[in-house]
């Protein structure tokens, strides 16, 4: 199996359509159809069943795709390492990141990175909602940056830093006056039990902040009054700022939005112990990372940790 052959078959498998696959490969549809026909003839077996214009892998096609993905992965790694050796400062870096985190982290650090590597293009795959390690199943993503409360076991990663998870309320909420200074917490601390009747705007449990919220409710024996579930961190924070209820958020998300809002709002420390998010940059295990990628992760780490002090 050659690299070009593997890329062609993977394009058909992903697009499930010969014309769309040809477009992504920048070749003509007849050329790709002929290529597939010749390959299947050589193998003596069909790789795809055709139902109308939809191409679905046969069993042998599924096994072929399994090995094709590995060949393409090695091809990408070779391209990056070769580029590192031959051109040093040229390349591209594909980062998957939640849009809120991208706004507060990538923007302030990109200028310093491009001073060191002016010929490296950074492509950000921003998501409004959930970003996690699943993005790394697509070999076009080099690094995924996200918050965790449990470290991934099947990935390599670099810890960028830690920050406190806070409760966001409108400044006019009467509960704000019940917050108090408490050792070990950065912000005024509030007993979560006081919010038993407060409506909550929550992220889903499979998201980092949503999962931590469930743990907090369990610790306090609370059955929260849930106004809204959303995967959009920015929406949850803004609604809390506007007084529709309470929301949980990483402190950097809150401060990023507070600096752009005219509304009065506060963030409060919570929990019987300080609740912290850990931000990591994850990538596929044993994957080759170009030196410019490692340099950018170091820039992000230094900026993030400086911002927290």
UniProtKB/TrEMBL annotation:
Q: Which GO terms describe its molecular function?
A: DNA binding
Lineage, top-rank taxon, reads: Bacteria
Q: What is this protein called?
A: DNA-binding transcriptional regulator, LysR family
Report the InterPro entries cross-referenced here: HTH-type_LysR_regulators, LysR_HTH_N, LysR_subst-bd, WH-like_DNA-bd_sf, WH_DNA-bd_sf
Q: Which family does it belong to?
A: Belongs to the LysR transcriptional regulatory family.
Matches recorded under SUPFAM superfamilies: Periplasmic binding protein-like II, Winged helix' DNA-binding domain
Record keywords: DNA-binding, Transcription, Transcription regulation
Q: Coiled-coil intervals in this record?
A: none
* Species this chain originates from: Lacrimispora sphenoides JCM 1415
Task: Specify one Pfam family.
Answer: HTH_1
Q: Which residues form the HTH lysR-type domain?
A: 1-58
């Amino acid at each position: 199996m050659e690299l070009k052959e593997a890329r062609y078959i993977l394009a058909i498998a992903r697009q499930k359509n010969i014309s769309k696959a040809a477009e992504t490969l920048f070749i003509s549809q007849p050329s790709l159809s002929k290529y597939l026909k010749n390959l299947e003839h050589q193998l003596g077996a069909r790789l795809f069943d055709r139902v109308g214009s939809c191409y679905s892998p046969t069993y042998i096609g599924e096994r072929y795709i399994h090995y094709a993905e590995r060949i393409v992965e090695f091809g990408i790694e070779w391209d990056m390492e070769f580029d590192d050796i031959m051109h040093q400062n040229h390349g591209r870096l594909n980062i998957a990141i939640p849009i809120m985190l991208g706004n507060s982290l990538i923007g302030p650090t990109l200028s310093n990175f491009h001073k060191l590597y002016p010929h490296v293009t950074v492509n950000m795959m921003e998501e409004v909602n959930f970003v996690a390690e699943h993005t790394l199943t697509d070999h076009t993503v080099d690094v995924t940056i996200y918050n965790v409360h449990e470290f991934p076991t099947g990935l390599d990663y670099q810890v960028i830093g830690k920050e406190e998870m806070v409760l966001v309320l409108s400044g006019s909420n009467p509960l704000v006056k019940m917050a108090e200074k408490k050792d070990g917490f950065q912000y005024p601390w509030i007993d979560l039990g006081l919010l038993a009747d407060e409506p909550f705007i929550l992220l889903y449990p499979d998201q980092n902040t949503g999962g931590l919220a469930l743990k907090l409710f369990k610790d306090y024996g609370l059955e929260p009054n849930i106004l809204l579930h959303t995967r959009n961190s920015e929406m949850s924070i803004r609604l809390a700022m506007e007084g529709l209820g309470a929301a949980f958020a990483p402190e950097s998300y809150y401060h990023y939005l507070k600096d752009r809002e005219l509304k009065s709002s506060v963030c409060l420390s919570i929990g019987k112990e300080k609740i912290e998010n850990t931000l990591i940059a994850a990538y596929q295990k044993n994957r080759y990372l170009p030196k410019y990628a490692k340099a950018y992760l170091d820039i992000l780490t230094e900026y993030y940790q400086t911002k927290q002090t």
